[in-house]
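Annex B. Sample input.
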Amino acid sequence: MIAYLVENKLLGAMSDWDLEVFKRRQLSNFLITSFSSKFKQPINSDSFQGELSIDRCSARRDLILLKTSCAFFDQNGRSEGEVTIAILNQQSSRSLEAL
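Annex B, continued. Sample output.
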């Protein structure tokens, strides 16, 4: 989802990123700071749908915070959840060629 947002320049806080920057930073600079989920009824793992939303994005200095929500459902079951992701957005003073 975040790669799609970066590629299509849909997230103002990451508008100077491209896919190369995203791929380089996605593991080392992303941290799940909170996660919660509630399963209201069992979901059939062979046939379900899901929705994912970014509810809020804020940027402060070298940090971007994304508050997201999700829901998964089938004909009989449903689950809901929330995830907060912290993204370090530091501009390195050294280029990759110097490493």
